[in-house]
Amino acid sequence: MDNPFKKILHNEELPKVLKEKVLDDVAMIKLSLDMADLFVVKYPTAIVDLLGGGAQVKGIKEDEQE
After folding, report:
1. Which of 46, 47, 49, 50 could anchor a disulfide with 54, C-beta 3.0 to 4.6 Å?
2. Residue 21 and residue 27: Cα distance in Å, rounded?
3. How many domains does the chain have?
4. Structural domain contains residue 8
5. Is the pTM of this model over 0.70?
6. Cα-trace Rg, the chain
């Protein structure tokens, strides 16, 4: 099996198709991380704040810092 990275370094130019595929994969990973952050971290925090439990949690954290 031939190493495609040796071809890239030899030609010193990345094929456009390969570049687009890599950038699309990176964009999909970033989107997945953003969605996970939204639903795992921010959404539960917003629900707690909406239901009124956020003021108590913030009060406890402020007391602990002093």
Report:
1. 49
2. 10
3. 1
4. no
5. no
6. 23
Per the structure, the complete domain to which residue 32 belongs is given by 15-65
Q: Could you tell me if residue 3 is inside a domain?
A: no
Q: Is residue 21 part of a domain?
A: yes
Give the C-alpha separation, 40 to 47, whole Å: 12
Residue 54: CB partners within 8 Å, gap ≥ 6? Answer: 45, 48
Tokens in use for 49?
Answer: 């704040």
Helix (H, G, I), strand (E, B) or coil at 61: helix
* Domain contains 9: no
Given this model, what pLDDT does residue 18 score?
87
Which tokens in the block code for residue 36? 């996970």
Residues 6+ apart with CB under 8 A from 60: none
Per residue in 41-65, pLDDT (tens digit) is 888 888 888 888 655 555 555 555 5
